[in-house]
Amino acid sequence: MDGPTVELLHRVAAAARAVPRPILEQFCEELERLPPQPGRSQTGAALRTVPQHAARDILAELVSFWRRKSPAAAPGQVAWALRAASITDEQRVRSQSVELVWTGPVSGHAVLRRTEQALLEVIEGAERSLILMTFAAYKVPQISDALLAAARRGVEILFVAESPDASGGKVSFAGFQALDAPLTQRVRLYIWPQEKRPVDTAGHFGSLHDKCAVGDENALFISSANLTGHALLLNMELGTLIRGGDLPRQAAEHFRGLIKAGVLARIMA
Fold first, then answer.
1. How many CB atoms are located within 10 Å of the residue 205 CB?
2. Which of 156, 190, 199, 225 has its CB 3.0 to 4.6 Å from that of 231, i.e. a possible disulfide?
């Protein structure tokens, strides 16, 4: 399979994920009415049947690539590729699981996954990539050991934390100082520079206050808990562990986008 064909399939999958299936099906039926080698006016007419502007723009980009880079694909083939991708994506979303995660007193009415257990599950399950974000971090041996084991098995680890300088003293020491020395050499460290933060009229600027972990773009842990022993073991903290579906990928792409745009800046330990 050549490069343009592979790229076309990726674009088909992205379009099928973004366009609601009833609208997509209507467009597929229009594609099937076209001749094997349709002209620009014919594909344009098919696009004009799409009622939503946003969906029409997405499909127009797909059609443009198809016509320019992979014109040998017949309209009916593109239609069935869109249908297959849409159904596959629906099945993937249905396979998503969401669990509540808790640190604190037990109520007796529900058994909830503990915060430390959920975070360890994301770290230990990662095979390719791991993104960790936290406001504050202090040494937690079990978490550090799990991160070092992940790094040793080849997992790319991005660690984003608040720092004293960037935060204007909101934290007393940088989050990456919670990492053991062997780990800091294997982890890519990022901060949110103060000059990249929004400032209000009183001169107050934002804090890096999110706490989450994304493993392999397939698991997303969101919590009120910082990466500290108290947060993981003693405080009242609530979060969610999401497996499957689209949200872990969206979160990972968002954070990588912030890095690419320079909003999050890499530092050396």
1. 16
2. 225
Token code pair at residue 141: 């041996």
Average pLDDT for residues 243-252, to the nearest whole number? 91
Map out the domains of the chain with their CATH numbers. 3-94 (no CATH), 97-267 (3.30.870.10)
Residue 245: pLDDT band (50, 70, 90) is confident
DSSP H or E segment with residue 97: strand 97-103
Per-residue pLDDT reduced to its tens digit, 37-89? 999 999 999 999 998 888 999 999 999 999 999 999 999 999 999 999 999 98
Beta strands at 212-215 and 129-134: parallel, antiparallel or unpaired: antiparallel
Shortest CA distance to 190 belongs to which of 141, 134, 128, 252?
Answer: 134
Q: CB neighbours (10 Å) of residue 158?
A: 20
- Any residues with CB less than 8 A from the CB of 241 and at least 6 apart, and which? 98, 99, 101, 113, 118, 121, 122, 219, 220, 221
DSSP H or E stretch at residue 221? strand 219-223
- What is d(CA 167, CA 133) in angstroms, rounded to the nearest whole number? 15
Q: How far apart (Å, rounded) are the C-alpha atoms in residues 71 and 36? A: 10
Q: How far is CA 233 from the centre of its chain?
A: 27
pTM flag (> 0.70): no
